[in-house]
Amino acid sequence: NVRKTFEYRIMRYGEDHLLLIARDVTRVSQLEDMRRDFVANVSHELRTPLTVINGYLELLPNDPQSDPLTSKALKEMASQTLRMRNLIEDLLVLSRIESSAERIYENTVDIPAMLNTIKVEAATLNQNHGHTINYHIDTDIEVFGVETELRSACSNLVFNAINYTPNNGTIDVYWQRHKDGVRFAVRDNGDGIEEKHLNRLTERFYRVDKARSRKTGGSGLGLSIVKHVLNHHNSNLDITSVVGEGSEFAFVLSAELIKQPEVVTE
Ligand code: ADP
Questions:
Q1: Where is the Histidine kinase domain (predicted)?
Q2: Which residue ranges have their beta carbon within 6 Å of ligand 1?
């Protein structure tokens, strides 16, 4: 007693006929569910042993005077377990978003307030980079959406700009009214990305420069998370980039998602 899943296509057939093609994708969608559950379960199970390892690492005395090799090993282990923790957290976020049944019209999100908290985190991350970060925010736009998801999408884009732009760059963050709704964008004046990479960037674990990404501690899942969040909010990620000039990562939330101010009648 399996529920069937179909994909439909309607095509014109001759002058006055339409052809409906129904494809049974039940098996494909079952496999997709299994893959998602598997990733979610494994990530969840890896979290506990990693927390224990981390806890013990923090307890060990780390005195470089006593034994340089031990000291180096402890530092490296701490940094690698942190990387692994970030990866697991991102895998969990991704699987949560992929199976998210939360309806976007149930809650509103105060994006400017959310951007204020991202701004504080960005300033901390920026301490090692020295970028000038400008915010151009229209404060009176509230949207329907899932706050945790939109926060994750926006912060990923801002943190990427900070991490991948060579030090002392300029980064502009926009949240502004747009002809089709409201637009969020992060523009940087970094090295830019070659065209051949652009449409692969949102694939899981796709990185332009593996060594560099490893240094940032990124999991390689950031833009994949952004893509899924935007998909859930009926939007897409637009990436434009010019090598040697910089990149812009942007998305538009359609006017339907903007909460209209309540009209007060006397
Ligand atoms: P990561 O964890 O590696 O940062 P992401 O999915 O967030 O993973 O990004 C994928 C890749 O896209 C990065 O490894 C980097 O090569 C590239 N990238 C993302 N944002 C920028 C940017 N603002 N400028 C240049 N390259 C970027």
A1: 41-257
A2: 156, 160-161, 164, 188, 190, 193, 201, 206-209, 213, 216, 218-224, 247
Token pair for 227 = 């893509």
The separation between CA 51 and the C-alpha centre of its own chain, rounded to angstroms, equals 24
Interface predicted TM-score (ipTM) of this complex, two decimals: 0.98
For residue 94, what are the contacts with CB-CB under 8 A and spacing of at least 6? 39, 204, 221, 224, 225, 228
CA of 159 to the centre of ligand 1 (A): 9
Rounded distance between C-alpha atoms, residue 264 and residue 190, angstroms: 47
H runs (alpha helix) in the chain: 26-59, 68-98, 111-126, 147-164, 195-198, 210-216, 222-232
- Which residue's alpha carbon is nearest to atom 25 within ligand 1? 164
Calpha distance 114→112 (Å, rounded): 5
CA-CA-CA-CA dihedral for 162, 164, 168, 170, to nearest 10: -60
Strands 238-242 and 143-144: unpaired
Each residue's pLDDT tens digit, 135-189: 999 988 889 999 999 999 999 999 999 999 999 999 999 999 999 899 999 999 9
pLDDT, tens digit (0-9, with 9 covering 90-100), for 230-259: 999 999 999 999 999 999 999 999 999 998
Amino acid residing at 129 = H
For residue 161, the ligand 1 atom closest to its alpha carbon is: 23
Angle (deg, nearest 10), helices 111-126 and 147-164 = 30
